[in-house]
Amino acid sequence: MNLDGSLLPSILAWPLLALFALALLPVVLRAPWGVLRHNRLEPVFISAVGCIGLLWSMRAGVRPGLELHLLGSTALTLIFGWRLAIAAGLAALAAVSALGLYAWPAFALNGLLLAVLPVLVSHWVGRQVYRLLPHNFFIFIFLAAFFGAMLAMGAVVLASAALLFGLGAYPYQVLMDDYLVMLPLIMFPEGFITGMVMTMLVVFRPDWVRTFDDRDYIHGK
User: pLDDT tens, 81-90?
Assistant: First the structure.
């Protein structure tokens, strides 16, 4: 999931980065930063960025670009909402890129795969769960958190494999044998850890979770 900068020629990489920045700038600027200040969650946000950067730096794989690591994007989305989650993901990616762990020329592609796609998938799952199903604590944990995280991980791995294949980085058989075969093994821990983290937060610090309201999920149940 860490795309190498050599996959894109420099004549395309930097213009793509500029377009990516222009597209994401309104999202970041319109993020509800005032919510962090009002609820005194700035330290929580900064800590979350650090934790996500740490997760993304602990990757394993047999070939460049085919590394797997935990995402944490669903937890970010459920805690802060999708706009702040994207901002946190971009901040984490910038941090690991500054440390030399990710390539700056591939920042736009890595940003789409790691900071945008899983957050949008998680946001969509959360919205459907809230809109279509009863507002129940266990439904929130098992579907919005656990299942949402698994689906987000699956989307990222499949999208990165399709991108690597489209760029001609690896043939189909290599992607299947060295990358996609590991998808079930990484989806479950992503969902399990996300579900565990969100369970602890909604039990002990529900005021930190922007998408969880006691009035909907607990009171009167």
Answer: 999 999 999 9
| Contacts within 8 Å (CB) and 24+ apart, 89-94 | 89/52, 89/114, 89/115, 89/116, 89/118, 89/119, 90/24, 90/28, 90/115, 91/49, 92/49, 92/50, 92/52, 92/53, 92/56, 93/53, 93/56
d(CA 139, CA 127): 12
Whether residue 31 is contained in a domain is answered as yes
The CATH number given to whatever domain includes residue 25 is: 1.10.1760.20
Domain membership flag for residue 2: no
Contact 28, 127 (CB under 8 A): no
Residue 1 within any structural domain of the chain: no
Provide the number of structural domains found in the chain. Answer: 1
- What pTM, to 2 d.p., does this model score? 0.92
Output the furthest CA–CA distance in the chain (Å, rounded): 59
Q: What is the pLDDT of residues 125-177, one digit of tens each?
A: 999 999 999 888 899 999 999 999 999 999 999 999 998 898 888 899 999 98
